[in-house]
Amino acid sequence: MTFAATILTLYPEMFPGPLRLSLAGRALEEQRWSLDTIQIRDFATDKHHTVDDTPAGGGVGMVLKVDILAAAVDHALRCQPKCPVLAMTPRGKPLDQARVRELAAGPGVTILCGRFEGFDERIFETRPVEEVSLGDIVLSGGEPAALTLLDACIRLLPGVMGAPSSGAEESFEEGLLEYPHYTRPVEWEGRTIPEVLRSGDHAKIAAWRKHRAEEDTRLRRPDLWERYGNARGRPASGVQRETKEPDQ
Ligand code: SAH
Asked: Measuring from each residue's beta carbon to the nearest atom of ligand 1, which residues come in under 6 Å?
């Protein structure tokens, strides 16, 4: 089945952009995913093809008009009725790997890209549009966010990544950051690859990796660590972690 990506944008020429290359590019050639862009401006009704207007209540910048957005979204929904519509906005729910997995397992995704100050809020009140953020940063437009979201989905599609299991151990898949990696040379600028990774003892290696994944998550991402602990029904503390669990 082909994963159908549809992008609503004022800059269709930004697609497939970097997704033309590497894994995603090959997958596009192999028709594991398809790409359609819809020019939002095509739904403007005046002779100047206006898509934005000044913000109600005053202030800087311009806001994408709801009537134009709705016409564009309705068109996309007619083309891909089964695909969820996601709008890229810093006001949205932060995207995570669990949502990416769900999307990748589905028929595709329709992505609405903002520009200027963003969208007239009424689009979210009247259309089935999920607001999604890429994180607590402000981009100049939704297109780089859409490319990122697509990249994350495409690599999970069947047959896209080399080894079928190579997605399973990545950061966030277990609720943790991934353990650190090393490769040859064994010694470089006086630093050696940790002994355990050269031991050939697979059980020891697995234990070291789990320990590092937990330690690094605890130190770098207290938010993830807290959730990881809660998901296992115990406080997220290194001390507690050592206690024996009945379910293990
Ligand atoms: N005025 C808005 C920012 C607009 S930035 C605010 O302060 O919330 C212009 C467009 O870039 C947005 O409409 C959105 O589509 C995109 N964008 C910016 N930051 C983003 C983020 N963190 N995640 C997803 N999309 C983002």
From this structure: 88-91, 113-115, 117-118, 133-135, 137-139, 141-142, 145
